[in-house]
Amino acid sequence: MSLYGAIKRANQPGPPEHSTLFRASAAGSVVVAIAACWAQGELPGLLAVGSIVLVVVGNLFSYWRRNHPLPFLKVALAAVVVGSFVWFFSTISSTATAGDLSSVERPLAILFTLIQAAHAFDVPSRRDLGFSLAGSATLMAVAAAQAVDTTFGLYVIVWAVFGLLGLLAMWSSMAGGARLRTRTVVLSAVAVVVVGTAIVAVVPPPHAASNLVFPSALAGDVPVSQPAGLVGGGTKGDEPLHAASVTGATRVGGFLGFAGPLDTAIRGALGDEVVFRVRADQPTFWVAETFDRWDGESWAASPPGDGTPTWRELVSGPPFDIPVSTGEVSQGPADYQTFYVAQAGPNLVFHADDATQVWFPSRRLFVGADGTIRSGTSMGPGSIYTVLSNVDAASPSELLHAGLPNPLPGGELSTVDQARYLQLPHPYPAAAALARRITARAPTTYAKIVALENWIGAHTRYTTDIPPLSPSQDTVNEFLFGNRRGYCEQISTALAVMLRTLGVPAREATGYVPGPYNPITDLYEVQAKDAHAWVQVWFPGYGWQSFDPTALVPDANPTPGAAIAHDVAGALHRVPVVPVSAVLGALALGLVLVVWRRRAPATWAAALTAELVRAARRAGLQVAPGETLLDVAARLDGRREAGGGPSPPISAGELARAAERAAYLGVEPDPAPRRDLRRTARRLRRDARSLRETGGVPPRGPVSPRGAPEPPQTTPRQPAGAGRP
Amino acid sequence: MSPGPSGAPGPTTRRRRHAGETMPWPRRAFGPVAGTIVSLAAWAAVAHNSGAGWVQALGALLAAFLFIGLLAPALFVRRARCMATAGPVDATAGSPVVVELVVSGPTRLRPLDPPGTERLTGRDRSVAVTVVPQRRGVLERCTVEMASAAPFGLLWWSKRMVVELPRPLLVAPRAGTPNPAGLVDDRSAGEDARRIDARVGEPRGVREYQPGDLQHWVHWPATAHTGSLMVREMETPAASPVRVWGVLPEDPAEAERVAEHVLGTVQSLLNTGRAVVLVTAEPGRLVEGPVEGVADAGRRLARALPRSPALLRWRAAKGPAGAATEPAPATAAAGAGR
């Protein structure tokens, strides 16, 4: 066969596809995929709505013309597709950046959408509908590339339902119109879920290729009024410098803790709204600020003291190269973290320890002497940035020997820094005596830290419900020698102060803990309540190492089990109501149509029988099981005669005889008389209610609410040798 | 195999492969499998390197659909059952025969032996398939290929299955060209002559007039004597039955050819009004008996078995008028004659 012949044969339209369920499912899957791209911001609203309308109209048109597709239509649609490709390549050649997937995704989504909208007008056969189904998967993939939260799962579920129904309907059509059984649908769905879940569980989590440009975007930004000054996000430019409230713009109650001094006297409650989501190679603390100056109630960050600027502005990016801070030793494995901001927040660039590069969509970035990073703008929801850190967490055995003779070269704190990180507002005699007693048998710094953590864990309790601190009270003394109850700020502060009394340089760090990991999105979903404070201790040769004493402290009160209703309400609150309602409404409508079509009588005789039986029931006649149609019609005529009304041109008995001739003998009247008979039967049904009170012939046999006489199947038998396509 | 509630083949408590049933195997699997592997590999590469968890999750869902679509049909085919519920008793080689089958689920049926047309069962559990037996014989079972691509229609899997017919199907040979030479043994002469009623011939007696009798048959003296119209009753010697030798050679193709000639010969003799006695070999004996019609001859030939060359040489030595009884083989007793 020549190439032309092969191409011609490949483009031959297959036999027309009559299955409406298959067609509706294929169209539905495309519509959902377009809606998903629109929800992720990949498509302009007008294009998305217009494409959805075209897909629906196109499928209806294709169904109408499925037996006789228009010959010139393929040419016209091919021209549209070629034009779309031309537009796509011209767009990406002018705007796309090599290695930057995000610059290609939006044009790609538009291209796929245009192709699907055009293709919808020429899907007469099963193969064409299969291509539509497959094409919807690529559209969903483009949308999935931008999805970072679990609400995208609703689109996936709806798309999967359409895909499942479509495939099942395709098989039903291939098998010659086999009935789609509920059991098959349910088993198939369960099998898909089980196998899909198993695959997700087995495959390694995705890892963004380092040769690609990392995603970065800025949204809802508020510029910084002072260089490296702290500014909050939200509708006002002063959050979170002041305590936020649950009804505020960020819907985060209490004090975010990232507004300059860390005031341990302030009490608040943090909500479970997702603040940002992180894709990271490994979970770790994401630091925002560090504090070195303690005054008994608040932590503050003091200038370096050796003349170095507190904040250094970086202008050569993105990516921005972060210089190594004083005394730091950066030698750990690379850890790429991409932050997807979900709530308006301050201009703090959260990161794992020892950041070396930042991809931030701004011209200004500030790095502090302590290694923390601030941007030139605050960040609104939708902002994205990526940080590369060399996480150099030393092992316990390494830390155990740190500080002994022959330490690793370099990595020493300067005298000025030593003084900063040993600063105390007063000698803390009681805390110092306690610390000495606890660490009497701990020869090394690490051993001292472990001993202190263990003591804190054994002798204190965690709770956020502690009385406010009075002006004369010291947080550490109150925590260690007073109520011994507190949360991360009190606990970490106590450890830091006790270490300082022992001459160990320590500082307070604030940021977020990783939060729950979502295996579907591969993101850590950091909530407001994941804000945390911990201690960083200097180890010669290893730099600042993080310690979290709060992890060892048991809860003061048993933590109540997860508030299911609260979680459900929160989940429902995040559901996109309009698209979900639209899709559910369309599904319900489709289901109603399918059920209505299935219950519609298959043949003219069956329809006539149904009308006669309904008329009999309306007239108050009970139809006994096993009663023939002629019997029912006779009783109906009898009821009418007894009522004394005008005789109709065609009696019920004649209608019944016509139905039985058609059903049993296969002899149907011509179309015009058929319509007249049907019309007469409908009129009889409408008028039957008036016969209700006139009495009539009682039913023969047992009375049953059911038992309508069913006409036999009139499906003609296939002659011997006939096959099905 | 216990039938289901509707008479359809149902699952058994212990699944056993029936004799003749093969394991399911995929049909034209290269395209779907290669397409699946390429698509999933490309998807995995993009998903993994993009770092997007949802793309990977969507790929897992897609992989689930594809794996189930490619592998699940094997389970459906393995569980599929087929049973013959009705069929004719007689058939002719080369002519279509309709056999009613009941299947356990929507499948594609293709009769293999004897070959026939492919059918999709669709909604019906009961389906009529047309088979065309190629050779004469007694057909007690047929081989069908059952195929399914359930539940997603991505890849067809099929298996072969032997279906027992509800009753043996006697497949008569085609009616070939008559070939009296070497097959016909005419015993027109001799004491086997029979006499039959005839319109012309020798008078046998008188009887009462019956509508249809000719005027010149009226016997006036008997009529005057009896008072009712009487006619002469005639008789004539019947043609003696022709003995047709229907013992077939062992070579199947040759046996088929000979059987066709035998049937054609019998048909032509019957058409000329001759009585035919057909000699065939059935299990353990030679059968010699009159045939009532072409259909009867076809059935006899369907049941006929080939015999050894020794018998054929004996028959040739004895000639057409040879004994009807089969000579005793070296180790078996002689079969009965008439």
What's this model, at a glance?
By secondary structure, chain A is of the alpha+beta class. In chain A, 42% of the residues lie in helices and 12% in strands.
Q: Topology of this structure?
A:
The complex is a heterodimer of chains A (725) and B (338).
Chain A: H1 3-10, H2 20-39, H3 45-64, H4 73-95, H5 102-119, H6 126-144, H7 152-174, H8 182-202, E1 262-263, E2 274-280, E3 286-291, E4 293-294, E5 298-300, E6 311-314, E7 320-321, E8 334-341, E9 348-349, E10 355-359, E11 365-368, E12 373-375, E13 384-390, H9 396-400, H10 415-421, H11 429-438, H12 445-459, E14 461-462, H13 475-481, E15 485-486, H14 488-501, E16 506-512, E17 517-518, E18 523-527, E19 531-539, E20 543-547, H15 564-574, H16 577-599, H17 604-618, H18 629-643, H19 652-665, H20 671-687
Parallel strand pairs in A: 14-15
Antiparallel strand pairs in A: 1-5, 2-8, 2-18, 3-16, 4-5, 6-11, 7-10, 8-13, 9-12, 10-13, 11-12, 16-19, 17-18, 19-20
Helix pairs in contact in A: 2-3, 2-6, 2-7, 2-16, 3-5, 4-5, 5-6, 6-7, 11-14, 12-14, 13-14, 17-18, 17-19, 17-20, 18-19
Chain B: E1 25-26, H1 30-50, H2 53-79, E2 82-86, E3 90-92, E4 97-103, E5 108-113, E6 119-120, E7 126-131, E8 137-148, E9 157-172, E10 184-186, E11 195-208, H3 220-226, E12 230-237, E13 242-245, H4 252-271, E14 276-282, E15 285-290, H5 294-303, H6 309-318
Parallel strand pairs in B: 3-9, 13-14
Antiparallel strand pairs in B: 1-9, 2-4, 4-7, 5-6, 5-8, 8-9, 10-13, 11-12, 14-15
Helix pairs in contact in B: 1-2, 4-5
